[in-house]
Amino acid sequence: MTVIETKIWDPAEHLDSEEKIALYLDAAFEDGDAAVIAAALGDVSRAKGMSQVARDAGVSRENLYRALSAEGHPEFATVMKVIKALGYDLAIRQRPAEV
User: Fold this and answer.
1) Local confidence band at 46 (pLDDT 50, 70, 90 cut-offs)
2) In the chain, count of helices (H) and strands (E)?
3) pTM tops 0.85
4) Which of 2, 52, 56, 60 is most exposed by smallest CB count within 10 Å?
């Protein structure tokens, strides 16, 4: 019998360019689900280095991990700090009128 070893797929391992990161975050925000957005921010933070992102955001690494975990519910202020620490701005654009 052949044994196949598998591992959990980690998106952070594939976020190795600013273009990929921007597309990943854009897709998460387009989805609109707060849990998806928090998870995506967590993935990008891990890809860029959680400790550095936490320092740049002015929060502890442990609190950032907790806030961006599947069970976390980050405050909007934390989300904004993380977005800024990652080098992004949050912008609002009007949706096209639905036909």
Assistant:
1) very high
2) 5, 0
3) yes
4) 2
Question: Contact 54/61 with Cβ under 8 angstroms?
Answer: yes
CA–CA gap between residue 73 and residue 87 (Å, rounded): 22
Which CA distances in Å does 62 have to 1, 38, 69, 90?
42, 15, 11, 24
- CA-CA-CA-CA dihedral for 68, 95, 27, 60, to nearest 10: -20
Single-letter residue type at 6:
T
The label of the residue with tokens 């052949």 reads: 2
DSSP 69: S
Measured CA to CA in angstroms, residue 6 lies from 3, 9, 12 at distances of: 10, 9, 17
